[in-house]
């Protein structure tokens, strides 16, 4: 009974891992539905996975601009905590693919190093390529969980090379050798078998009942797939039709295969550029003629749905497939109607690496996830982004304290390239430093982390400025100026639907010139609004109005802050005068229900009002005070709220700026305004002027980049 219960627990844990990994982040209900498990079972599994560091609980809080109500708590799969690597040793240069624990591509492409050969048989060269790829992507060997390797020649299920282009490897158990060298589990398999499996799972053979993956070459080697599985045969050599003596009289370039391939590729490249190129046409026809008997034999023997042309010459599949299909039909005359599809590989030269990573996930679930029998993820490289190592995007690090910035970074399209670290010391200890660090830590930790990163000359984005005093932020700005490190400050509330809608309407001139703006911020009785949050509210007022505060007055109910006994004032009202002459107001009230903000913008020709995420536009001139349609005139009901602008990338993490940005100046203005608010409250509503920043910092952080900040 204990063994049965143990297997059931492992099975439930495996299902939970696969569910939250594929969802990315999800509630207990969503995980239970996907894994088809009960809520208590999912809760128990998530507790274990959180303890193991594979899952983390998302912050359970209502974000700025949401319409109220406490959202269900979500958990996030920490895909960035490990790396799985696939290596292709069959091409002229070693190819490498790095993925995170969710199977998402971190880096992909040629290593720039020639593959192993009789002249270079040392397997440690493969280890050097793996270590170099890890380092370039910001990882170390400690992050490596498992490796898959594809090699030409026949390989036994245990990883022994039976026939290898590197003759000294024959009879060697490559799997054991590479496992010892890398210190992690390694699976070694034939390159065609791995590529065929990849095409069956993620490529042109996906969904095919029976398929053939054929090497595009004069002597055809192939692999047969049945319902997605590679048919290996008794000696792991099923599909090696090129070994038949009947094909021995076919002419093909002599010399090492990698050199011979280049001889064929050059005229085919000319043919692609010029369809009338005579040599290119002769080369193409010779290749088709040489491949036809073997492909025809496979088609007659297997009767496949699809034949995929792979290998290094697969990039010329579009030049070969049509003529090959015609030639095969003529070659098999009398066999009835053949409707087989012959098509180039959809994974290109990366098929072996994709298959190697897939086999690693399939074979080493325990080493990767700490749990056996976890179904492998979908490994789906972004082939459109280019295949250049070291990585297809900047090296990005995140110091995450569970706030809006960390959530935005993880939700970005490049989230798979973002590494989450426990502290700044861990970031500073990386062998290859990140190019940009996003810091979403509590106030004091945020400042110290930013100083350390900026001192290294690394770009920084802060979740919020240090709001205790303008001097603390000025100190950071001075470090950024001295080191020349790009620095940004996130303005999270600007991403909320209501604020985006308000800004768009103002920019489109729908209310004319802004005359006044105010915000009502209502919270529950147990909500403590920090200076960080107040600074973000002030920033929204500045952003919408197009000005900054010159002076203000703030009042609060008793007890006053200088006589506080632990209770916060129950009401605050602030009157701002901005440098563009626009008056603004802010009211904060407690005990009014869930956290919610209401904005009002009054202009010369209209008025905007928000309630949660919804915004209404009222025309005061043309419609005599009636709510009007949206800018496109497409809304049928004039009383309905305005639709928000189309969603954008929540945070452009690729914008590793070449210089300072205005966002830090705007953040500094908000911090200085909050400082003046606190002084006015202490002085019982006395009018206080906002302290301006040092003139040299203003010049530095405004002259270089005058564009509107994205974040």
Give an overview in words.
The protein is an alpha/beta fold. 35% of the residues lie in helices and 20% in strands. It is built from 19 helices and 26 strands. The strands form 5 sheets. It has an 8-stranded mixed β-sheet, covered by helices on one side. The chain is elongated. Residues 60-68, 384-393, 558-566, 621-638, 653-660 and 703-711 have low confidence and may be disordered.
Keywords, separated by commas or semicolons:
eight-stranded mixed β-sheet; elongated; Nucleotidyltransferase, domain 5; five-stranded mixed β-sheet; alpha/beta; Arc Repressor Mutant, subunit A; disordered C terminus; 711 residues
Put the structure in a nutshell:
The chain is of the alpha/beta class.
- What's the number of extended β-strand segments? 26
Helix content: 25-40%
What's the helix count? 19
CATH superfamily of the largest domain: Dihydrodipicolinate Reductase, domain 2
End-to-end CA span: 56 Å
CATH architecture of the largest domain: 2-Layer Sandwich
Characterize the largest beta sheet: strand count, sense, and whether it forms a barrel: 8 strands, mixed
Structural class of the helix and strand makeup?
Answer: alpha/beta
Spatial sequence of strands, sheet with the most strands: 25-24-23-19-22-21-20-26
Low-pLDDT residue spans? 60-68, 384-393, 558-566, 621-638, 653-660, 703-711
Overall shape: it is elongated
The first-level CATH class name of the largest domain = Alpha Beta
Radius of gyration, Cα only, in angstroms?
Answer: 31 Å
Instruction: Tally the structural domains.
Output: 4
What portion of the residues fall into strands of 2 or more residues?
15-25%
**What is the fold-level CATH name, i.e. the topology of the largest domain?**
Dihydrodipicolinate Reductase, domain 2
Q: What value does the average pLDDT take? A: 81
């Amino acid at each position: 009974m204990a063994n049965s219960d143990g297997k059931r627990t492992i099975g439930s844990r495996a299902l939970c891992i696969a569910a939250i990994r594929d969802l990315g982040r999800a509630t207990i209900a969503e995980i239970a539905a996907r894994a088809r498990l009960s809520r208590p079972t999912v809760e128990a599994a998530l507790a274990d996975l959180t303890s193991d560091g594979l899952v983390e609980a998302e912050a359970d809080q209502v974000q700025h601009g949401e319409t109220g109500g406490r959202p269900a708590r979500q958990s996030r799969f920490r895909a960035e905590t490990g790396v799985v690597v696939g290596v292709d040793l069959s091409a002229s240069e070693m190819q490498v693919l790095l993925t995170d624990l969710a199977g998402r591509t971190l880096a992909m492409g040629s290593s720039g190093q020639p593959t192993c050969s009789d002249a270079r048989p040392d397997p440690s060269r493969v280890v050097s390529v793996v270590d170099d790829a890890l380092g370039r992507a910001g990882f170390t060997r400690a992050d490596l969980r498992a490796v898959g390797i594809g090699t030409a020649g026949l390989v036994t299920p245990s990883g022994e090379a039976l026939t290898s282009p590197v003759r000294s490897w024959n009879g060697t158990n490559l799997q054991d050798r590479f496992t010892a060298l890398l210190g992690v589990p390694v699976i070694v398999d034939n390159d065609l078998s791995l590529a065929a499996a990849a095409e069956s799972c993620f490529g042109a053979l996906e969904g095919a009942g029976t398929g053939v993956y054929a090497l595009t070459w004069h002597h055809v080697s192939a692999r047969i797939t049945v319902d997605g599985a590679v048919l290996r045969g008794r000696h792991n050599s099923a599909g090696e039709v090129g070994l038949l003596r009947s094909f021995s009289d076919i002419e093909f370039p002599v010399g090492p295969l990698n050199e011979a391939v280049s001889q064929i590729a050059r005229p085919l490249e000319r043919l692609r550029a010029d369809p009338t190129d005579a040599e290119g046409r002769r080369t193409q026809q010779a290749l088709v003629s040489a491949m036809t008997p073997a492909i025809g034999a496979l088609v007659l023997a297997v009767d496949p749905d699809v034949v995929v042309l792979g290998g290094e010459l697969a990039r010329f599949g579009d030049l070969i497939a049509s003529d090959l299909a015609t030639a095969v039909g003529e070659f098999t005359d009398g066999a009835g109607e053949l409707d087989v599809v012959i098509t180039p590989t959809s994974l290109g030269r990366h098929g072996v690496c994709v298959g190697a990573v897939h086999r690693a996930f399939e074979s080493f679930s325990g080493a990767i996830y700490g749990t056996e029998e976890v179904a492998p993820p979908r490994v789906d490289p972004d082939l459109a982004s280019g295949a250049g190592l070291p990585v297809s995007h900047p090296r990005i690090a995140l110091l995450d304290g569970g706030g809006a910035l960390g959530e935005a970074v993880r939700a970005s399209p490049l989230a798979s390239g973002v590494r989450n670290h426990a502290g700044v010391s861990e970031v500073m200890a990386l062998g290859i430093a990140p190019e940009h660090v996003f810091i979403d830590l509590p106030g004091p930790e945020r400042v110290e982390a930013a100083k350390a990163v900026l001192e290294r000359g690394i770009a920084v984005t802060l979740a919020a400025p240090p709001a205790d005093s303008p001097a603390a932020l000025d100190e950071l700005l001075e470090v950024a100026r001295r080191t020349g490190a790009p620095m940004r400050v996130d303005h999270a509330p600007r991403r909320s639907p209501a604020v985006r809608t308000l800004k768009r309407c103002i920019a489109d001139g729908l209310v004319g010139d802004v005359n006044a703006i105010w915000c009502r911020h209502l919270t529950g009785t147990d909500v403590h609004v920090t200076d960080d949050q107040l600074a973000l509210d002030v920033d929204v007022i500045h952003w919408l109005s197009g000005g900054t505060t010159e002076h203000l007055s703030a009042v609060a109910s008793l007890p006053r802050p200088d006589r506080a006994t632990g209770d916060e004032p129950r009401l605050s009202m602030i009157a701002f005068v901005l440098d563009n002459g626009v008056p603004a107001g802010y009211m904060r009230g407690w005990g009014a229900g869930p956290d919610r903000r209401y904005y009002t913008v009054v202009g010369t020709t209209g008025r905007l009002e928000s309630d949660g995420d919804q915004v209404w536009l009222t025309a005061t001139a043309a419609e005599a005070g009636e709510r009007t349609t949206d800018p496109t005139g497409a809304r049928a009901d004039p009383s309905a709220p305005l639709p928000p602008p189309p969603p954008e990338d929540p945070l452009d993490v690729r914008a590793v700026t070449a210089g300072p940005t205005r966002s830090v100046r705007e953040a500094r203005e908000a911090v200085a305004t909050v400082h003046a608010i606190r002084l006015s409250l202490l002085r019982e509503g006395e009018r206080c002027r906002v302290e301006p920043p040092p003139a040299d910092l203003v010049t530095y952080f405004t002259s270089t980049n005058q564009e509107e900040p994205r974040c």
